[in-house]
Amino acid sequence: MKNVIFLLFLFFLVHNSLSGKETPLLLPNITPRLAKFLESLPLNAQNEITTSFKETLSYDLIGDKKVEAEPSKRIIEIDEATEAGHGVLVFEVTQSGSRFLFLNDLPYKIPLPNLSQAEQLTIALIFAEHEKAIFVDRNWGRMWFDPPSAMTDIQKAAYKKLGLIQD
Amino acid sequence: MGKKSFYSILLFLFYISMNGGSYPNISALQGEALPPSFDDLSLKISRGNKKNETLSSRIYLITLNSVGMDTGSFPGGGIYSSAAAVSKILSQALEIPLKIPYLADLYDWLKAHAILIKKPSELISGDIIISPSSKDVQGHVGIIGERISERPDFAIYSNSLDSCLFLKNWTLSRWREYFEKDLKLNVYYFRLLKPLPQSTSNGP
Fold first, then answer.
1. What is the predicted pLDDT for the residue at A82?
2. Is residue B201 over pLDDT 90?
3. Is B87:B105 a contact under the CB 8 Å cutoff?
């Protein structure tokens, strides 16, 4: 009898680990919004993303969006807060897993030349939507130190698409 | 009272009246140097402006003038704006339209246009302290302020994410403790020595 119970216990243990139903390793410094979002991702993607996280920093979801030209691919942006400032971690998620792309103060200057135009626009759009939501009453045309502007082409494209600036 | 005593008292009273009715500064008599007030400093720098003013002292003065600056209208909305805030001050000091909203770009610009200071003991007010971001940890940049101890330690002025204002919000010792020790980021110090030619002013 004891052996049967032991074998059943072993079976459930192995079954759970293989079915991928266990909860991901979520650090206490992740906001509930980000935790909930990460749970919606495949386990391997969750693990790949959370390996970039540091215990002493805190993380929040900025947004995610499908790449228009490649609907199987998503871009995810996560805010990383230190005691001094914030940065944006950018990930790509596909059916096979996720990939860390880059960290920047602002994700408009994209340091990866191999990303497609559609991927770059998706990265810029996610952050522009975030800005639009949190920075109300902003003069979007002037915020980049007036002309000559420091705005990148990809940011301009995202702002135009959201109607924040005109041609 | 003799004539001598009378004239001594008269001289003493005259001295007091010429000094605004106050006795000599007691703390000065005790040998304790008071920190210069902002007005004193402005006056000192503006007096030496034409001949002896260094770019670092000019950066420091503009930094002091910029305390409380609202960084909310900068790229990054005051939240992602540490490089933009320092870039704005350097822009004013150099009188060029320097616009560098990215920390990595500001670090590259400093490497190209400023000299690297190797030891904290060689720092002066107006130098720039920067911890560039690593692959996945965000760094920070600020301006070295006044010396606050002989260790040496300095006040540091930088963007404050809590208030989205440019403030005196770090010290050199705390910066090194946090960025170097806790976050494992590098800490670099730079000094700008002379105004740059216009052709190098636009940043990356």
1. 95
2. no
3. no
User: Looking at the DSSP assignment, which residues form a beta bridge with residue A120?
Assistant: none
Contact across the interface for A87 and B100, Cβ inside 8 Å: no
Q: Which residue of chain A is at minimal alpha-carbon distance from B204?
A: A150
Does residue A116 sit within a domain?
A: yes
The complex's ipTM? 0.82
- A29 assigned to some structural domain: yes
**CA–CA separation, A20 and A36 (whole Å):** 16
| Residue B42 in domain | no
- Do the Cβ atoms of B104 and A80 come within 8 Å? no
Amino acid residing at B82: S
As for how many domains chain B has, the answer is 1
**Are B129 and B178 in contact, with CB atoms under 8 Å apart?**
no
Residue where the block lists tokens 């991702």:
A41
Q: What whole-number percentage of chain B has pLDDT above 90?
A: 60
Query: Please, are residues B129 and B44 in contact by the beta-carbon 8 Å criterion?
Result: no
The one-character DSSP state at B181 is I
Lay out the sheet containing A97-104: strands in order across.
Answer: A58-67, A70-81, A86-94, A97-104
Return the half-sphere exposure (C-beta side, CA atoms, 13 A cut-off) of residue A27.
Answer: 16
Domain assignment present for residue A167? The answer is no
**pLDDT per residue as tens digits for the range B2-36:** 556 656 665 555 444 444 333 333 333 233 333 33
Contacts with A105 from chain B: Cβ below 8 Å: 76, 80-83, 101-103, 133, 138
What are the C-alpha distances in Å from A133 to residues A62, A77, B20, B184?
11, 15, 59, 33
Residue A120 parent element (H or E): helix A117-134
Cβ neighbors of B202 (< 8 A, separation 6 or more) are A148, B96, B97, B98, B99
